[in-house]
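Ticket #4471: structure output looks truncated?

Reporter: J.K.
Steps to reproduce: submitted the chain below (488 residues) through the standard prediction queue, then opened the result file.
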Amino acid sequence: MSAAYPRLSSAAREELRRRLLGLIEGHRVVIFSKSYCPHSARVKELFSSLGVDCNILELDQVDDGASVQEVLSEITNQRTVPSIFVNKVHVGGCDRTFQAHQSGVLQKLLQEDPACDYDLIVIGGGSGGLSCAQEAAALGRRVMVLDLVVPSPQGTSWGLGGTCVNVGCIPKKLMHQAALLGQALTDSRKFGWECSQQVKHNWETMTEAIQKHVGSLNRSYQRALREKAVAYVNSYGEFVEHHKIKVQQLEKGSPGKLKVVAKSTEGTEMIEGLYNTVLLAIGRDSCTKKIGLEKIGVKVNEKTGKIPVNDVEQSSVPYVYAVGDVVEGQPELMPIAVQAGRLLARRLFGGCLEKCDYINAPTVVFTPLEYGCCGYAEEKAVEVYRKENLEVYHTLFWPLEWTVACRDSNTCYAKIICSKFDNDRVIGFHVLGPKAGEITQGFAAAMKCGLTKQLLDDTIGIHPTCAQVFTTLEITKSSGLDATQKGC
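Returned output as attached by the reporter:
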C-alpha cells in the first residue's frame, strides 16, 4: 500500500532517517506495517510461525506515519508496506519476503552471527569488489575493503579501482583515441585540410594527461567508499582460519637478479643478461596464492590461480564468493564484474534471486579497427544449438567516411547468428568496424529484449551509418553468396 507524502524540511528528514536507522540496527526483525493491510498481516503470520519476535511499527497508528513512509522509501526505494528488515538487511515487501523464505535466504539472514566485526569483507578493490561492497553497504551491512597493489622494483603502483581503471579499460581507450586522432589527421588531407607543418606526437604529454585522469578516478572511488561508510584499508588480506582475515604489510626490499636468455624472432641473435625486472606481456595471473585460501579449503586452479565458482559466484567454501577476473571460465570484463558484484550483494543481503547473465554480455576490442560482439561466437553457437538449427547472416561493408579517404572498401564486417526454431532470435552479434563498441552496446539491449531477425528487418536504419547494415542483412553463409559490399 502506497501513500502521498508530505514535505519535510531537510533537518527533519535527516533526524527521522537517523531514528529509523537506529530502529533497524537495534532489532533483529523490523516490520514497517499498516494495521489494516492484508499483506502486512501475512508477513506477521510468517514470522510468528517461525517463532521469531518482531519489532512492528504500524504507520497508520503513529502521528508521523506518512513522513516515516516517505523517508523509508528513500532508504529502500520501496514506496509500499510492509517493508521488512532482518538483521539490518532490507528483505523487501510481502512477495519478496515469502520468496526469500522459500529459497532459504530468509532463514540464512535470521541465523547470521552478530559477533563478526563485518558482514562482508572484500579482498581486492577492483570493479567487482567495489561494486559488491557499495551495494552491500547500501543494504545496511558492515563492509570492509582490503586492497594493496604490490609495487614494482621501480616503485610503480596504482590506486583503488583495479586493473580496469589503472592499467586496463580506461588508459587503453584513451590511448586508442590518441591513435584514432592520428589516423584522422591522415584522412583529413583527403577532405581538404592542409597542414602547414608536420604534426608530431608527444608521448609524455599524452601519458601525463591519462595518468591525471586515472588519479582522479582513484580518488573518486575512495570518496564513494567514505560516503557509504565502507571501511577501506590499503593493506593485504589473508585468511588465517574460517571467518577470520589478517590484515600484513608486505615486506619491503629489492628483488634478486634474474638471468635471461632470449632468442630474437627476426633472426638467430641470442640475448643474455642479468636483470632485476623481467616483463612478460603475456597476460595476468590471479593474485590468489598468498591470501590463505588453502587454509580454509577454497579450491583454486593451480595453473592460473583462478577460483572455480557455481552459478551464484560461490566457491568450494560456502561463505567465500568470487567475482571479476579471478573467476575461472568467465570473461575478464569490468562491466561483468560490476554486475556480478552488485547482484551478489543483493542476493546475500537483499533477498534478491537474480543471477549474472554471462552469455549476453557485450564487449569490444579497441584495436585500430574495433571489434564488438554480444552473445555466442559462431563456433560456440554450433556446439550449443547444432549447425542445422542456425542461420548466419553476414556482409562486408564500406563506411562512408572511408570512401573519400580511399581506405579499403571491404574490411568491415557484420554478422548475426539466429536460432531457427526460436523465431530466428538473435543469439550472436558481431561487428568489425569504426565505433563498434557504441554499436554493440545498443544491440546488446535489444538482444536482452529478445531481438529477432524480423525485428531487425522491420527497423528503419539511420542513413548513412555503419549500424544501418544490420537492418539490411540478406546474405546467409549457407547460401554461399558473395558477401562483399556493393553500392552506398
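Triage note (M.O.): checked the attachment and the full C-alpha cell line is present. The radius of gyration is 28 Å.
Status: closed, working as intended.
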